[in-house]
Amino acid sequence: MTATRPDPAGETFAELLGGRRAALDATVGPLAFGVAFVAGGRSIEWGVGAAVAVTAAIGVWRLLRGDKLGAVLVGLLGVVVAALIALYTDRPEAFFLIRIATNAASALAWAVSIVLRWPLLGVVVGGVLGQRGTWRRDPALLRAYSRASWIWVMQYVVRLAVWLPLFWAGQAEALTVATIALTWPVVAACLAVSWYVMRKSLPVGHPGLRHPVIDKEPAGV
Can you give the pTM of this predicted structure? Predict the structure, then answer.
């Protein structure tokens, strides 16, 4: 019988984390802002009003579908804060400042987590699977999560490389297009590529991420 690489869960990261749906939700606010901003004759008030209204409507729809109130409120709060920054500074590109800052912080946090041997992909997926830190005691899983987590670092770096020059140039319309282009498509690609890296990193015969092969000693930091 020919040995094959394991399917490390039965599901993909997209199914476990709901990443594509979250990414689609994340594009709605910026899209509404950009469309209303242009339609309103470059009116910041129109842009932020549309973004908040559309995000609130999506939030109500999510609640009716059974999503948690906390997650919905966090999404709405992010758009409201972005709107207030744009209004306060009177700069439409400032609507995207929160998104730029969170991506910079995320890139740093993911990179540091890998160096500290607590890769955030393992933390998140392990949490979803109810494993807490047991996955770290499997050297193969720890190595695979670390390698796959670098893909997530790269997605944040790619966004920053595009968004920052546009922000400094005051290109609100271009930021809208770039945000949409680098949100759902990039998240979908990141989920797929990190899943591929995860599968390729696990040795043949490994039972998968739902079944860590526990080492007697926990992984060192």
Answer: 0.84
